[in-house]
TrEMBL record:
UniProt entry tagged with the keyword Transcription regulation: no
Species of the source: Zizania palustris (Northern wild rice)
Family: Belongs to the thiolase-like superfamily. Chalcone/stilbene synthases family.
GO biological process: pollen wall assembly; polyketide biosynthetic process
Domain of life: Eukaryota
A Pfam family reported for this protein in Swiss-Prot or TrEMBL: Chal_sti_synt_C
Protein name listed in UniProt: Chalcone synthase
Domain Chalcone/stilbene synthase C-terminal, chain residue ranges per copy: 243-390
Length: 397
């Protein structure tokens, strides 16, 4: 009997792959209830860590806080929680179990709150989600926050889960990059992406010999962000907000130790070199030329023709982007506002920035550029970019 001819591979791929680029179809964010203003933070921090006697270091902390351009931050931990666990600030004591134990509850709680908002905006039932991608620096368990999220949100048991640990501040980018590839390579896929972080794993007492930790304590905050990503939106139910056009990643040679994270018995240790700002100034423009040249979007070196979703890593990092790309001050207004209101929420921050950017597109004097880019830094030191295209398909445009 003659065998039926097998279809040529291109045809099979046409069936499997989506037609169009992936797009963000819904965005949500969430923050924990405890709020500490940046003005009160030095007093709060030195009090809860029983370090009031370190008056010079506290004065330095105040100088740092005053320069952050942060108004307030939200934390899952409270003064009472820390008082009940002295291992969180007594540096010699092992404390990893306490920290990860809190994260196990906190991450899904925050991520689900953000995801529920993103799913509601997307407009379809949570059971239509086919994939889940979660990025965080505050976990080390399997199954992790992804499985708990799937249960709490009522996702299908067949949902394909990916969790990304310890990607530093770019965990949200990485999760979005993975979601883009999934959406474009699996026709009909709808990917729920979440970035969630709490700072408790890195919480530590002030120490003159560990100024990196002082910077982390002054700048980082807790939060979660989420997005639903999919290609070929089903109109009029689904409304693309940003198309995810292309991605790139460049690791700057010889910078392996400039930003790094280590999970130790006393928690998550960050190394953040003061050279980061200079490295950004010296390298980011070339990365963007490489990423945008193939799309004809370099604007002959005038980068103000794009909108920008910079990760709000710190005031000085945003200043470096602005200087290196000769940006008008309003170009980073969304990133600066997110930094001011929440601090650097690490894996979550980019979702806050995308949410703020699309909100600003509705303002009378808001951003109108069609094309833009997300930029963030990962340990390495690695510069990640994603080219975005703002669509007119947003629900209330
Ligand atoms: C911390 C800052 C707000 C301080 O502001 P300025 O640098 O303008 O102020 P300044 O020079 O007067 O510094 C104030 C005091 O802080 C000290 N100081 C500043 N940077 C320091 C560092 N990296 N390590 C240790 N100490 C530091 C200074 O010596 C000074 O101490 P004294 O007063 O005693 O002389 C800023 O440098 C900043 O925003 N840094 C970026 C923080 C950061 O790296 N974020 C995470 C990046 S990674 C990330 O999130 C990824 C991403 O961005 O995508």
């Amino acid at each position: 009997m003659a065998m039926a001819p097998s279809p040529p591979p291109e045809t099979v791929l046409d069936v499997v792959r989506a037609d169009g680029p992936a797009a963000v179809l819904g965005i949500g964010t969430a923050i924990p209830a405890n709020c500490v203003t940046q003005d009160e933070y030095p007093d709060w921090y030195f009090r809860v860590t029983e370090s009031e006697h370190l008056t010079k270091l506290k004065a330095k902390m105040r100088r740092i806080c005053d320069k952050t351009d942060i108004k307030k931050r939200h934390f899952y931990h409270s003064e009472e929680m820390i008082a009940g666990h002295p291992e969180l600030f007594e540096r010699a004591r092992p404390s990893l179990g306490t920290r990860l134990g809190v994260a196990e509850f906190a991450l899904p709680e925050l991520a689900v709150a953000a995801a529920a908002t993103a799913v509601a905006e997307w407009g379809r039932p949570a059971a239509d989600i086919t994939h889940l991608v979660v990025g965080t620096n505050a976990g080390a368990s399997a199954p992790g926050a992804d499985l708990r999220m799937a249960a709490l949100l009522g996702l299908r048991p067949t949902v394909q889960r990916t969790i990304i640990y310890l990607r530093g501040c770019s965990a949200g980018y990485t999760a979005l990059r993975v979601a883009k590839d999934i959406a474009e390579n699996n026709r009909g896929a709808r990917v729920l992406v979440a970035g969630a972080d709490i700072t408790l794993p890195a919480f530590t007492a002030p120490d003159e010999a560990d100024l990196d930790a002082l910077i982390v304590m002054a700048v980082f905050g807790d939060g979660a962000g989420a997005a639903v990503v999919g290609a070929d939106p089903i109109l009029p139910i689904e409304h693309p907000i940003f198309q995810m056009v292309s991605v790139s990643q460049t690791t700057i040679a010889g910078t392996e130790h400039k930003v790094s994270l280590q999970l130790r018995e006393r928690g998550l240790g960050y190394k953040i070199s003061g050279e980061v700002q200079a490295l950004v100034r010296d390298n980011v423009e070339q990365c963007l030329v490489d990423a945008l040249m193939p799309l004809g979007l370099t604007g002959d070196g005038d980068w103000n023709h794009l909108f920008w979703a910079m990760h709000p890593g710190g005031r000085a990092v945003l200043d470096s982007y602005e200087a290196a790309l000769r940006l008008n001050p309003q170009k980073l207004a969304a990133s600066r506002r997110v930094l001011r209101e929440y601090g650097n929420t690490s894996s979550a921050a980019i979702f806050f920035v995308l949410d703020e950017l699309r909100r600003r597109r509705h303002d009378r004097d808001g951003e109108r550029c069609e094309w833009g880019a997300m930029v963030g830094l990962a340990p390495g030191l690695t510069i990640e970019t994603m080219v975005l295209r703002a669509t007119t398909g947003g629900r209330d445009e």
